[in-house]
Amino acid sequence: MGEGITIIGGGLSGLTLGIGLRQRGVPVRVWEAGAYPRHRVCGEFISGLGLGSLTRLGLLEALHESGKARPAVTAAFFAGKTSVKARALPEAALCIPRFDLDDWLAREFTKWGGELVLSTRWSGESGPGIVHASGRRPEPAGLGWRLFGLKAHASDVTLDADLEMHFVPEGYVGLSRQSHGRVNICGLFRTRAPVPDLRQRWREWLGGAPNSVLNQRLAVAQIDPASFCSVAALSLRPRRAWGRAEFCVGDALTMIPPVTGNGMSMAFESAELAIDPLSRYSQGKLDWVEAGRQFARLCDDRFSARLRWAAWLQPLLLQPVARAGLVFGAAHFPALTQWLFARTR
User: Does the pTM of the predicted model rise above 0.85?
Assistant: First the structure.
């Protein structure tokens, strides 16, 4: 057995990386501060190149067989009175609740012989053999707009498509069909001031403006209060892997805004890209610095263009006039949707 790898964070990227390393016989320990299963703020919608990563790791077929995931083939967009009716996605996607997915990945990791330490926060230092997969980077206060996310599951929601995106005055809300009649409601919002009563008013934020399509969708929805979760101080500014002092994967590496990219896909992709250099480090074929450099080059080659497109699109999606124009263009020129999809996923 070679040098062991310690992964800090048992989310999508950390567990997927752990599985990939165990498939190559690398000793792996994952430290997770929480426990499974649990709800997380997430669109619960996987599209793009991450599906290929799951396929190559032998996980996609197993996910389908688990009965926890369902395919998604259509999408619709709504911005005020402008809409894009249900239309086939350029490529089929996958919907699965994080409540189920994280727990399933954790079980797969332990089946492969990985060591999983739960409900324990890592207190060691960074260095050789330490991979950071602990999620988002908080955004300091005082930098203008603050971003926060909300998520809940509901039943009795009628959708026109597998994925619906609804633009609201200060953000957007995605509705995605999940298995067993559930719908995931996930929104990204911005504000210039703290929202102290968010715990009491989160349904208003997710529910959209009165008489909007979103509001009508959720008027009779049966929302599961236990599924509600939130995340604040989000930083969606792109970051490069090259020059980083720490070896990071997933959201710990960089985040991409919803709609303009797929963070779940990037989590799986970055995990797959890390497997080979970390395996060779474990075998003594690379030193730690060179393993990090090789991984950084792979990540920046894979993600840089995608992140540039996202950085350009995200401000437009938060400007009512600009996003209405984008939705209008997508409604009348279907090739625009496919073109943007190809560049952001």
Answer: yes
Which ranges of 251-287 does DSSP label H, i.e. alpha helix?
A: 263-282
pLDDT, mean of residues 277-305: 97
Q: How far apart are CA 115 and CA 117, in angstroms?
A: 7
Q: For residues 274 and 17, is the Cβ–Cβ distance under 8 A?
A: yes
Convert 60-121 into a string of H (helix), E (strand) and C (coil).
Answer: HHHHHHHCCCEEEEEEEEEECCEEEEEEEEEEEEEECCHHHHHHHHHHHHHHCCCEEECCCC
Distance CA 338, CA 224 (A): 34
Of residues 229, 225, 77, the one with CA closest to residue 149: 229
67-77 mean pLDDT: 93
Measure the CA–CA gap between 276 and 285, rounded to whole angstroms.
11
Separation of alpha carbons 284 and 34, rounded Å: 32
Q: Would you place residue 257 in the very low, low, confident or very high pLDDT band (cuts 50, 70, 90)? A: confident
The class of domain 5-139+235-344 in CATH terms is alpha beta
The structure tokens 């993600």 sit at: 303
Side-chain-facing half-sphere of 72: CA atoms under 13 Å: 29
Structural contact between residues 52 and 138, judged by C-beta atoms closer than 8 angstroms: no
* Measured distance CA(84)–CA(90) in Å, rounded: 15
Q: Answer yes or no: are the C-beta atoms of 136 and 235 closer than 8 Å.
A: yes
Query: How distant, in Å, are the alpha carbons of 190, 194, 320 from that of 148?
Result: 6, 10, 18
Closest CA to 147 of 227, 14, 265, 255: 255
Question: Tell me: the pLDDT tens digits for 30-70?
Answer: 999 999 999 999 999 999 999 999 999 999 999 989 888 99
Over 60: is that where the pLDDT of 140 sits?
A: no
